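Fill-in record for Non-structural maintenance of chromosomes element 1 homolog.
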Amino acid sequence: MARQLGDSHRRFLQTLMAVGITDEQEARALYQHCCDAHKMQCIPDKLDEFIEAINSRLQPMFMQIRKGMSEENGHQYYALVNMAETDITRMTSDYADNELELFRKTLDLIVSSENGKASSTDILNSTDTMTSKKLKKSETEHLLTRLVQDKWLCERRGEYTLSTRCVIEMEPYIRTMYQDQVKVCHICHNIAFQCQICENPSCGIKIHNPCVARYFKGRVEPRCPACDDFWPHEIPEVRGLRSQSR
Protein backbone atom coordinates (compact mmCIF):
# COMPACT_ATOMS: atom_id res chain seq x y z
CA MET A 1 0.00 0.00 0.00
CA ALA A 2 1.38 3.40 -0.97
CA ARG A 3 2.38 5.64 1.92
CA GLN A 4 0.71 8.98 2.53
CA LEU A 5 2.72 11.91 1.20
CA GLY A 6 2.85 15.33 2.78
CA ASP A 7 3.69 18.72 1.31
CA SER A 8 7.35 18.24 2.30
CA HIS A 9 7.54 15.09 0.13
CA ARG A 10 5.90 16.89 -2.79
CA ARG A 11 8.27 19.85 -2.53
CA PHE A 12 11.27 17.49 -2.47
CA LEU A 13 10.00 15.63 -5.55
CA GLN A 14 9.22 18.82 -7.48
CA THR A 15 12.73 20.12 -6.85
CA LEU A 16 14.34 16.86 -7.94
CA MET A 17 12.17 16.80 -11.08
CA ALA A 18 13.57 20.24 -11.95
CA VAL A 19 17.26 19.38 -11.42
CA GLY A 20 17.21 15.68 -12.40
CA ILE A 21 20.06 14.69 -10.10
CA THR A 22 21.55 15.92 -6.83
CA ASP A 23 24.36 14.75 -4.58
CA GLU A 24 23.75 13.41 -1.08
CA GLN A 25 24.83 16.60 0.65
CA GLU A 26 22.44 18.67 -1.44
CA ALA A 27 19.67 16.07 -0.95
CA ARG A 28 20.06 16.26 2.83
CA ALA A 29 19.94 20.04 2.73
CA LEU A 30 16.81 19.88 0.54
CA TYR A 31 15.23 17.35 2.93
CA GLN A 32 15.87 19.74 5.84
CA HIS A 33 14.48 22.70 3.89
CA CYS A 34 11.30 20.84 2.87
CA CYS A 35 10.66 19.68 6.43
CA ASP A 36 11.25 23.17 7.84
CA ALA A 37 9.02 24.80 5.23
CA HIS A 38 6.10 22.54 6.10
CA LYS A 39 6.74 22.25 9.85
CA MET A 40 7.59 18.55 9.69
CA GLN A 41 10.15 16.93 11.97
CA CYS A 42 13.43 16.34 10.13
CA ILE A 43 15.31 13.24 11.28
CA PRO A 44 18.78 13.44 9.64
CA ASP A 45 19.33 9.67 9.29
CA LYS A 46 15.86 9.09 7.80
CA LEU A 47 16.48 10.59 4.36
CA ASP A 48 16.29 7.22 2.59
CA GLU A 49 12.99 6.41 4.37
CA PHE A 50 11.66 9.82 3.33
CA ILE A 51 12.62 9.05 -0.30
CA GLU A 52 11.17 5.54 -0.07
CA ALA A 53 7.81 7.06 0.85
CA ILE A 54 7.99 9.13 -2.34
CA ASN A 55 9.01 6.07 -4.37
CA SER A 56 6.01 4.11 -3.09
CA ARG A 57 3.76 6.70 -4.75
CA LEU A 58 5.88 6.95 -7.89
CA GLN A 59 5.80 3.20 -8.56
CA PRO A 60 2.44 3.16 -10.44
CA MET A 61 3.87 5.87 -12.72
CA PHE A 62 7.02 3.78 -13.38
CA MET A 63 9.27 6.44 -11.85
CA GLN A 64 11.82 6.08 -9.07
CA ILE A 65 14.36 8.13 -7.15
CA ARG A 66 17.46 5.95 -7.40
CA LYS A 67 20.75 6.26 -5.55
CA GLY A 68 24.16 5.77 -7.16
CA MET A 69 27.84 6.65 -6.83
CA SER A 70 29.95 9.05 -8.85
CA GLU A 71 32.93 7.21 -10.32
CA GLU A 72 34.88 10.45 -10.24
CA ASN A 73 34.73 11.35 -6.57
CA GLY A 74 32.88 8.49 -4.83
CA HIS A 75 30.03 10.73 -3.66
CA GLN A 76 26.50 9.37 -3.54
CA TYR A 77 23.86 10.94 -5.81
CA TYR A 78 20.08 10.73 -6.09
CA ALA A 79 18.47 10.78 -9.55
CA LEU A 80 14.86 10.65 -10.70
CA VAL A 81 14.67 7.92 -13.35
CA ASN A 82 12.06 6.55 -15.74
CA MET A 83 11.55 2.84 -15.01
CA ALA A 84 9.11 2.23 -17.90
CA GLU A 85 11.85 2.56 -20.51
CA THR A 86 15.03 0.69 -19.78
CA ASP A 87 17.07 1.68 -22.81
CA ILE A 88 18.04 4.60 -25.00
CA THR A 89 14.48 5.00 -26.32
CA ARG A 90 13.86 7.28 -23.32
CA MET A 91 15.94 9.88 -25.19
CA THR A 92 13.89 9.81 -28.42
CA SER A 93 11.92 12.96 -27.61
CA ASP A 94 15.14 15.00 -27.40
CA TYR A 95 17.39 13.45 -30.06
CA ALA A 96 17.05 12.41 -33.71
CA ASP A 97 17.59 8.79 -34.80
CA ASN A 98 21.10 9.40 -36.14
CA GLU A 99 22.01 11.25 -32.92
CA LEU A 100 20.84 8.29 -30.86
CA GLU A 101 22.87 5.96 -33.06
CA LEU A 102 26.01 7.98 -32.39
CA PHE A 103 25.25 7.95 -28.64
CA ARG A 104 25.02 4.15 -28.81
CA LYS A 105 28.37 4.03 -30.61
CA THR A 106 29.86 6.28 -27.93
CA LEU A 107 28.46 3.95 -25.29
CA ASP A 108 30.05 1.00 -27.14
CA LEU A 109 33.43 2.75 -27.09
CA ILE A 110 33.22 3.59 -23.39
CA VAL A 111 32.08 0.14 -22.25
CA SER A 112 34.71 -1.68 -24.33
CA SER A 113 37.57 0.60 -23.23
CA GLU A 114 39.96 -0.27 -20.41
CA ASN A 115 39.63 3.11 -18.70
CA GLY A 116 35.93 3.88 -19.22
CA LYS A 117 36.64 6.72 -21.65
CA ALA A 118 36.17 7.50 -25.33
CA SER A 119 38.23 10.12 -27.13
CA SER A 120 36.57 12.76 -29.30
CA THR A 121 38.66 11.45 -32.21
CA ASP A 122 37.31 7.90 -31.83
CA ILE A 123 33.76 9.19 -31.56
CA LEU A 124 34.18 11.31 -34.70
CA ASN A 125 35.65 8.32 -36.54
CA SER A 126 32.69 6.14 -35.53
CA THR A 127 30.39 8.28 -37.68
CA ASP A 128 31.91 6.50 -40.71
CA THR A 129 30.07 3.28 -39.75
CA MET A 130 26.68 4.86 -39.10
CA THR A 131 23.72 3.16 -40.81
CA SER A 132 21.41 6.18 -40.46
CA LYS A 133 22.12 9.63 -41.87
CA LYS A 134 25.79 10.36 -41.26
CA LEU A 135 26.56 13.33 -39.03
CA LYS A 136 29.01 15.98 -40.18
CA LYS A 137 31.98 16.83 -37.98
CA SER A 138 30.36 20.07 -36.77
CA GLU A 139 27.07 18.25 -36.07
CA THR A 140 28.90 15.58 -34.07
CA GLU A 141 30.71 18.20 -32.01
CA HIS A 142 27.42 20.02 -31.36
CA LEU A 143 25.75 16.74 -30.34
CA LEU A 144 28.53 15.92 -27.88
CA THR A 145 28.13 19.38 -26.34
CA ARG A 146 24.38 18.75 -25.93
CA LEU A 147 24.95 15.32 -24.38
CA VAL A 148 27.23 16.94 -21.81
CA GLN A 149 24.78 19.78 -21.14
CA ASP A 150 21.93 17.26 -20.73
CA LYS A 151 24.08 15.30 -18.25
CA TRP A 152 24.39 12.08 -20.26
CA LEU A 153 28.15 12.48 -20.77
CA CYS A 154 31.04 14.22 -19.04
CA GLU A 155 34.03 15.65 -20.91
CA ARG A 156 37.57 16.40 -19.81
CA ARG A 157 40.51 17.17 -22.09
CA GLY A 158 38.78 15.72 -25.14
CA GLU A 159 37.79 12.46 -23.45
CA TYR A 160 34.21 11.48 -22.71
CA THR A 161 32.83 9.39 -19.85
CA LEU A 162 29.32 8.43 -18.81
CA SER A 163 27.85 10.89 -16.32
CA THR A 164 26.63 9.74 -12.92
CA ARG A 165 23.08 10.37 -14.08
CA CYS A 166 23.60 8.18 -17.15
CA VAL A 167 25.12 5.32 -15.13
CA ILE A 168 22.25 5.41 -12.60
CA GLU A 169 19.52 5.63 -15.23
CA MET A 170 21.01 3.32 -17.87
CA GLU A 171 22.38 0.60 -15.58
CA PRO A 172 19.69 -2.05 -16.41
CA TYR A 173 20.21 -1.42 -20.14
CA ILE A 174 24.00 -1.55 -19.84
CA ARG A 175 23.93 -4.80 -17.84
CA THR A 176 21.61 -6.39 -20.41
CA MET A 177 23.30 -5.15 -23.60
CA TYR A 178 26.92 -5.60 -22.51
CA GLN A 179 26.77 -8.75 -20.40
CA ASP A 180 30.18 -10.01 -21.57
CA GLN A 181 31.90 -6.62 -21.39
CA VAL A 182 30.49 -4.80 -18.39
CA LYS A 183 32.78 -4.59 -15.37
CA VAL A 184 31.50 -4.88 -11.79
CA CYS A 185 33.32 -3.40 -8.80
CA HIS A 186 34.52 -6.07 -6.35
CA ILE A 187 33.91 -3.71 -3.41
CA CYS A 188 30.53 -2.04 -4.04
CA HIS A 189 29.22 -4.50 -6.71
CA ASN A 190 27.99 -1.71 -8.97
CA ILE A 191 28.99 -1.49 -12.64
CA ALA A 192 32.41 0.07 -13.08
CA PHE A 193 33.90 1.99 -15.99
CA GLN A 194 36.71 4.01 -14.43
CA CYS A 195 38.45 1.39 -12.33
CA GLN A 196 41.67 -0.46 -11.49
CA ILE A 197 42.12 -4.14 -12.37
CA CYS A 198 44.08 -6.83 -10.55
CA GLU A 199 47.00 -7.87 -12.77
CA ASN A 200 46.93 -11.50 -11.64
CA PRO A 201 45.69 -13.34 -14.79
CA SER A 202 43.74 -15.82 -12.70
CA CYS A 203 42.01 -13.03 -10.74
CA GLY A 204 41.43 -9.79 -12.66
CA ILE A 205 38.90 -8.23 -10.29
CA LYS A 206 37.90 -4.60 -10.91
CA ILE A 207 37.58 -1.87 -8.29
CA HIS A 208 36.25 1.68 -8.78
CA ASN A 209 38.91 4.34 -8.27
CA PRO A 210 37.03 5.85 -5.26
CA CYS A 211 36.54 2.35 -3.83
CA VAL A 212 40.29 1.72 -4.27
CA ALA A 213 41.02 4.93 -2.34
CA ARG A 214 38.75 3.96 0.54
CA TYR A 215 39.66 0.25 0.69
CA PHE A 216 43.43 0.71 0.68
CA LYS A 217 43.52 3.86 2.84
CA GLY A 218 46.11 3.46 5.60
CA ARG A 219 47.33 0.05 4.40
CA VAL A 220 51.13 -0.19 4.30
CA GLU A 221 51.21 -2.83 1.55
CA PRO A 222 48.05 -2.89 -0.59
CA ARG A 223 47.04 -6.40 -1.56
CA CYS A 224 44.20 -7.60 -3.78
CA PRO A 225 41.11 -8.35 -1.65
CA ALA A 226 40.37 -11.42 -3.78
CA CYS A 227 43.70 -13.17 -4.49
CA ASP A 228 46.01 -11.37 -2.00
CA ASP A 229 48.54 -10.49 -4.73
CA PHE A 230 50.34 -7.15 -4.39
CA TRP A 231 48.20 -4.32 -5.80
CA PRO A 232 50.62 -2.51 -8.17
CA HIS A 233 48.50 0.50 -9.08
CA GLU A 234 48.83 3.98 -7.65
CA ILE A 235 46.36 4.40 -4.81
CA PRO A 236 44.34 7.60 -5.33
CA GLU A 237 43.55 9.86 -2.41
CA VAL A 238 40.04 9.95 -1.00
CA ARG A 239 38.62 13.07 -2.60
CA GLY A 240 36.69 15.37 -0.32
CA LEU A 241 35.94 18.14 -2.79
CA ARG A 242 32.55 18.21 -4.44
CA SER A 243 32.61 17.74 -8.19
CA GLN A 244 30.64 19.78 -10.68
CA SER A 245 30.40 16.86 -13.14
CA ARG A 246 27.41 14.59 -12.79
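KEY FINDING: The radius of gyration is 20 Å.
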